[in-house]
Amino acid sequence: MTSRGESAFSWVQQLLQMPILETKRLVLRQFCQDDLKDICAWEAYAIEPSTQVDAQAFLDFCFQSYSTWGMGPWGLFLKTDRMLVGNSGFCRIDLKQNCGEVNYFVTRQYRRQGLASEALKAILKFGFEEIGLARIQARCSPDNISSERVMQKTGMQFERRISAEASKDESRDENLYAIMRNEFRAGHSARLS
Fold first, then answer.
1. What local confidence, expressed as pLDDT, does residue 13 receive?
2. Domain ranges for the chain
3. What local confidence, expressed as pLDDT, does residue 1 receive?
4. In this structure, are residues 141 and 174 in contact, taking their beta carbons and an 8 Å threshold?
5. What is the average pLDDT across 97-108?
6. Which residue has the higher pLDDT, 10 or 63?
7. Among 3-12, 133-142, 171-180, where is mean pLDDT lowest?
8. Residues forming beta bridges with residue 102, ordered by sequence position
9. What is the pLDDT of residues 29-78, one digit of tens each?
């Protein structure tokens, strides 16, 4: 016999199952252990490739998220050369507030090609249409102009600056961007016409 809390948690896990998402140039799918080599090649902070220990820690985090929540980061796979070029996903979902927060990363050698925007649009569509979220937001440091541009390209609007004391990072200020479901639908309809 399951308790009411367990059945509610089970419902949330079913709601948050991760499908494979496709865009024109990308396949977004769950990570697997075979992705370790590609993740090791990422230049995570534009300085040096990830170490195998760092890459495995990232994969372990993904696997734990999939197991616990039914959802975690999607790997971004470039269709043309089947390279793993980054990740994106929901870093938190508040079903009481009907709000999700997204993040994204594209390794340095594949930046400035619109891949982060393309992936984020697919995740926004999934969040609004499949999960039924009313609002999706993202954050970045104020000096991360490229990340802000990705958010703007997907229709997100700047809302406010969050001080370091109030930010999730607590070491720096963050700019908060967001988009509502009706704004996304209106923008999506306009692009189709």
1. 46
2. 17-192
3. 44
4. yes
5. 92
6. 63
7. 3-12
8. 90
9. 999 999 998 988 887 655 566 788 888 999 999 999 998 888 889 999 99
Name which of 167, 4, 19, 13 is nearest 93 in CA terms.
Answer: 13
- Contact call for residues 74 and 119 (beta carbons, < 8 A): yes
What one-character-per-residue DSSP string does the chain give? Answer: ---HHHHHHHHHHHHT----EE-SSEEEEE--GGGHHHHHH-BTTSSSBPPHHHHHHHHHHHHHHHHHHS--PEEEEETTTTEEEEEEEEEEEETTTTEEEEEEEE-GGG-SSSHHHHHHHHHHHHIIIII--SEEEEEE-TT-HHHHHHHHHTT-EEEEEEPTTTSSSSSS-EEEEEEEHHHHHHHHHHHH-
Which residues, other chains included, contact 36 with Cβ-Cβ below 8 Å and sequence gap of 6+? 52, 55, 56, 59
Q: Decide which of 3.40.630.30, 3.40.50.1360, 3.40.1000.20, 3.30.70.360 is the CATH code for 17-192.
A: 3.40.630.30
What percent of the chain lies above the pLDDT cut of 70?
81
Enter the pTM of the model: 0.81
Does residue 74 contact residue 21 with C-beta atoms inside 8 Å?
A: yes
The DSSP secondary structure of 16-38, one letter per residue, reads T----EE-SSEEEEE--GGGHHH
